[in-house]
Amino acid sequence: MVRKPFAKKEEPKNGKKRLIPHGIYTNKEGIVLPSVTGVLSMLGKPFLITWANRMGLKGINSDDYRDEMGVIGGLAHGMISSSFKDEEIELADFALEQVVKAKNCYKSYLKWREDKLLAPYLIENKLVSEEFQFGGTPDYYGLIDGVETILDYKTGAIYKEAYLQTCAYWKLLIENGQPAPQKIILLGIPRTDDEKFQEVIYTDFETGWNTFKTMLALHNQLKEIDKEFKVRSKK
What we know:
Layout: E1 2-3, E2 8-10, E3 18-20, E4 25-26, E5 32-33, H1 36-40, H2 47-57, H3 62-82, E6 88-89, H4 96-113, E7 118-123, E8 127-129, E9 134-136, E10 140-144, E11 147-155, H5 160-175, E12 183-189, E13 198-202, H6 206-233
Parallel strand pairs: 1-6, 11-12
Antiparallel strand pairs: 2-3, 4-5, 7-10, 8-9, 10-11, 12-13
Helix pairs in contact: 3-4, 5-6
């Protein structure tokens, strides 16, 4: 079975493929809900301003570079997820450089898992919380060396948002009838030679969940304020 990449592709001006996220979540009434990553996007990333400036000084368009790394990351995610299924990723539509870098990520992941026993319960399954009204898609949930673990893989560096993200998944998994997770493993998988492999482990879920829940409430409040402002500004 051949599997297409996990997100829709479009053709940008530079001729390379770009992946478009497809994470739309709805509740039982069909109302669109905020996603975990959407809520966490409220967190500021001031370091990106410095990074974009450095890229500009090198003559590199930071938006194009970010999009390119996003394609590579999406492709690497697809390779990892498909390794648990009888599926293959269709690579013909991707540039050779994109495929090479994604395969480098995949090889780093395989090296990490070679001495571990993984038994997945869920692989990229979309989940919704009816209680808290949000949705998310864990990369992997299942046993790792006999321990129920949320595994989240990032191509490139790991940031604090990843901890909050997986703590939100913790709540989603429990509400959707899965065994309570015992551990979080965050993997930072290098795409290029100047990036390093990272593994970060957590066992505290409550701190991250309480922080995410506060951010979710703020996200919803800001959305209502934005609606009210649009109505009043038209008067």
